[in-house]
Amino acid sequence: MYGDHPGSAKLKNVSEFDDLIAANRSFADDFQLGGFDGVAHAGVAIVTCMDSRIDPLNMVGLKAGDAKIFRNPGGRITQAALEALVLGVHLLNVNRILVIPHTRCAMTSKSQEELRNEIGASAGVDASWQAFHVVNDQLAALAEDIRAVTAHPLIPDSVKVGGFIYDVDTGLLDQKF
Ligand SMILES: [Zn+2]
Prior knowledge:
By secondary structure, this protein is an alpha/beta fold. The protein contains 6 helices and 5 strands. It has one domain: 3-Layer(aba) Sandwich (Beta-carbonic Anhydrase, Chain A), CATH 3.40.1050.
């Protein structure tokens, strides 16, 4: 059905998802969250990196249903992150926000030019047009991100905002702001 679609090359190998779909069937066998609402039951929102070493719910003792999670490269407060936080605060019970970049993050260790070169080589096509929001000074970026949240006109002072660095080698959070 996707034969003429320009993205068909990315869609053709549906069977490559079989292991995940099988796991999903097992997951659904024991599913407890049916009919559950979508609010953050612990009142928590977490903005963190997409890094696979980060388990955002478990690392603060939460479980599905407790928190809103927003992830991107570097765990940055982007416009999309602010949009998510405003929705979370006003419609989804969020009253505490944790912004959590982490140690040994790829976004802190390479320049945009290096990433463009590496990804261009991997893709086999020019990547110089793609923005990669690298972080030169992680603490300064975190300070700026915390300010962006606390200064947002739609995020009231009653919402507590914390900035933390997650250590991917110890599992510990270190509060900076
Ligand atoms: Zn990262």
